[in-house]
Structures are given as structure tokens and as C-alpha cells.
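Sanity check

After download, print the first record. It should look like this:
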Amino acid sequence: MTVANHSSGLITEHHDSKKLQAFGDQYIRRWSQIPTIVRLTIGEIYPPLEVEMYQFYADDFEVTHQPLLFTDYTTNSIKEEYKEAIPFALQLIGIHDVPQYGRYIDDILQYTLAKELELFPQVCFAEQPDDFSERLLIYMFRLCSTFPPEVCQKEAFTLRPPLTGILQKQWDESQQKKKTDGGWILGVLRLVITACVMGHTLTLYDEDQKIREQYRSSRMANKQLKFLFNTVRSKLMQEILNRFHQVMRDRTSTNRWTYVFFTMLGLAFTLEMTQRSIYVVMQSKSSQSTLSQADAFEDARSACVTIDQEFDFLMRLFHKKFKSHDLLWPSLDDDSADLPTDPSSQFMCEVRSLIEEKST
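Expected C-alpha cells:
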């Protein structure tokens, strides 16, 4: 399964470590040797991401100003507004830094599940004129809020009747499967969150409003952080696709419909955000005159078609595997369910109602 690699190469090219290093070498004249903790965020309500940075000295507009992107839905185009960027960035980046950014994704996930289920979907899809994606993601968070990681870990230790022999083994396997599946779909939400963070500019988290208004962010640091978050995204994507592959090969997994359906929704969100990022990257190249507008658009279109084809392959596998176990549009005599709980049933009802509402 190749969706995780985005065979177009445009996203991986944008987050190539050598090109990132060359970008810094081209524009940065010298560095300060005094470290400073800079706090960044995708939304003021979330705990900030604290990053050790160093001041640098540069004159070129390419690093002294940060483009803030927004979608103009009247023309269906992506537009840029430039703000002065703070001259701070990471002096060195390496694979040892990645766990810190994985923990930041976890912080956003746990904050959302514990306090504000609606907030992250609102941040994620703030620019979209229709609320379909926002509401669907809220429903996904709501379902996961019923079994956060700590609850999943405790399921193996719940009280049960005394069992022996094969019954004991079956019980242990069923409890482990619940724990694994709970972690699986929480991983899907981590993937969606990572894709959203990569698609947004991390801005200054500062109590001084004047500083926030003058310096919205650091362009160099955002490039570096997107590289690191891309490593997190790739790892999460590979883990989810591996799990998807295991379920597709398991003949006894037809009762896992809800988990796999949830996964397909998360992948759709992630790949849609990736496609938007591809168009942003290619538009940037076009505006810098490194590509003609027509060539940039065609490269982006071709890359997005490839991603659509890869996702369509997964969809066909999903439909073939679960063609007789559709819990979203069940037949009247279909009483099967992989999660015979109220939260799961409520999730299906909400998704079904949303689709029916938007179809009228």
C-alpha cells in the first residue's frame, strides 16, 4: 500500500532535509549562539509548542516575511498575505527531535478529548464554507472520547466471571483486541491532527498582543517544523496502513467494520489536506517564477490524481471486505455490530443523518 509515500513526490520534496538545509544556507548570514525558547501554536487555547531556537541574521524577503495563506471561496483560489517574521529558527534538526512533536500531537488530542470536542474541527476547517467536514470530525472525536488511551489500557483488567482453558484464552484475546483497536482509531485521529498542523502556519503564542500583531510567526522555523511533523505523519500513516492490511487479510475481522470505516474517514481527511498542501506548494513555486502557473497547476493536479487513485484502491478493498456488513446503511435484517455500545450506534446515526441532510 503506497498511500503513505505519496508517490507524486511533491510533499516529500517540500520536506526534504537537504533542500531545507540549502534554503537556510542560502538566506541566513549568521547565527546567534544564545538559545531562546519560542512558543508556537495553531490556536491560542491549546497548550503551546515550546521550541529552542536561535536568532539568525538575514536580509532577504524570503525569510524575513511569513506568508499567511487563506482560501478565497469567491474565486476558489488560495491567496497570500505577508507578515513580518521573527528571525528565529532551529539551528539543528534531527530524528532525535521527532518524539517531542509526536507528544505535541498527543497533547492536542488529549486536550480535545477532555475539554473541547468541537474546537479542533473548527480550527481545522475554519476556511471551509460548508460545515460537513467539521461536523463529521466532531462526531469522530466524540466517539473516541468514550475510550481515551487510559481507558483502553484498563480494559484488560476489568472484572469477569472465572474462566479456564480455551474460554480463558478467548477472553484474553478479545480484551487485547479491544485495547489494540481503541489505540488504532486514536492513532487515526493523531494522523488527522498532524495533517492539520502541517497545513497551518504555527503562530506565536505570546501574551503581548503587539508582538503577535507585528510578528505572526517564523517562516524558517515553520519550514523546519513541517519537516519534523512530516516524519511524525509518515510514521503514523505507515502504522495505520499496516493495521488496515492486517484486518483485510484476517478472515474473522468482518465484525471490525466500525474501526475500518473510521480509518477510511481519517485517511480521507488526511489525504484531502495533503492535496491542498500540494496546491499551496506549487502555487508558491509559481509565484517565485520557478515554474509557470500552467506547469505548476498541472504538476499539482497530476499528484492529486495519483493520491485519489491510491485512496480509491483502499476503498475498493474496504467495500469488497465488508460488502455484507455495512453498518452505515444496514439492511432491515442486518443486526450485526462490531461495537454493541451506545457511543458506536450514536456515531453511526450521526454520520447517517449528516449525509442525508447534505444530500437534500
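If your output differs, re-run the checksum step. Summary of this record's structure: The longest strand covers residues 30-41.
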